[in-house]
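Data deposition worksheet. Section B asks for the primary sequence of the deposited chain exactly as it was used as input, without tags or linkers unless they were present during the calculation. Section C holds the resulting structure in token form. Section D is free text for depositor observations; keep each observation to a single sentence. Incomplete worksheets are returned to the depositor.
Section A, Depositor: J.P.
Section B:
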Amino acid sequence: MLDQLDRALMRATSRDGVSPARARQLRWVVGELRRALDREDFPRGARASLSDLFAAEPAERYLDLAARGELRLRAAAGAPASTVASVRVRMDCLEILARAAKVPVVLPERPAMQELKAPVGARQRSLLHGWLEAAADRPGADAGRVRLFALVGVVLDTGARAGELCALKVADLAPDLDAVTVVRKPQARSVAPPTTERHELSDHTRAAMRRWLDVREELVQHVEGTRTALWVSVRGNHAGVLDADGHARLRPPGMPLMPRGLARAYTRTVVQVNADMVGRPGWEPLPYRLEQLRRAVEPHPTESSQD
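Section C:
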């Protein structure tokens, strides 16, 4: 049966339109399913075939164990339960795997999404634009702040998600920086093909982007391999592996940002910016999640086409 599961994973991740993020989610769910099957308290009949694994009782049992954090690769005492969004992602992945294996899946009712936090208001966005313009050419500005100024500008002009931002290349910018090309990835259970959009960049964003590209050029000078990513790290960080002496290996500055790294960098720098802006008339602290900023805008691409 595990061979059936692996074949379903291979078929699901190799299909056109499956994003790298979705492929990681599918591998994550398959890993949890394998750990669930090793448990003595998991329904015994689920081990017979993939159809049996995706039956109502095993599927619900898997989702329950996963939601309570009992299928993590590294168990941690007091680990928080999964979010509603994580549960919904698991259910999406079960449906994708079942379709790839051409077997039915019986899932419980999909949990309702939690109420979204309020997005950033128009007044705050206006003040932020002014701050971007004033700070873009400030001599000696911190590299992380320069990157945030440009990043926030692109978000406000395009409404791009973290994964879409990380996929941007320098070549996606127009030569005069008046526009950027963004590839929209299908979300949740959508199987629609990616869409390529061209968005005009505001004067604020163009000024911030010029400053960031200068900083970025210095950061990538000594990086080996590809240097095409628009957003790169501004300081060294742990690569998650140990060298021969058992010390954590550092990735140098100038490496491409991944969605999690981008989210952490955004939050870290927003803390600093909020401190700088405190007390200014009309200013309210920026949210610490990029998603709240993204949902505050309704982008209007100048061109759009399906890939």
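Section D:
The mean pLDDT is 83.
The two ends are 36 Å apart (CA to CA).
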